[in-house]
Amino acid sequence: xxxxxxxxxxxxxxxxxxxxxxxxxxxxxxxxxxxxxxxxxxxxxxxxxxxxxxxxxxxxxxxxxxxxxxxxxxxxxxxxxxxxxxxxxxxxxxxxxxxxxx
Length: 102
Known about the structure:
The protein has 102 residues and is mainly β.
């Protein structure tokens, strides 16, 4: 019996990408790198696009660099974890809401 390769690899998935302010979202295949130390890679099951995302797409936040993949309210499953992550493990389901600020 062989042991599956546990080394995280680059994965390909579909995402709605905004390439510039005011342009329509483009659904395309993107590459997602393995998580670095302290990071978690999540398989997104559902996400919401809220008014904050709309503001980003309209260019209301000048510090946002395009391209961007909007959606900061999500639900998913931990796919892999980076070195030092101890609070979640692959297979764990998560819900999150990310608020920007200090």
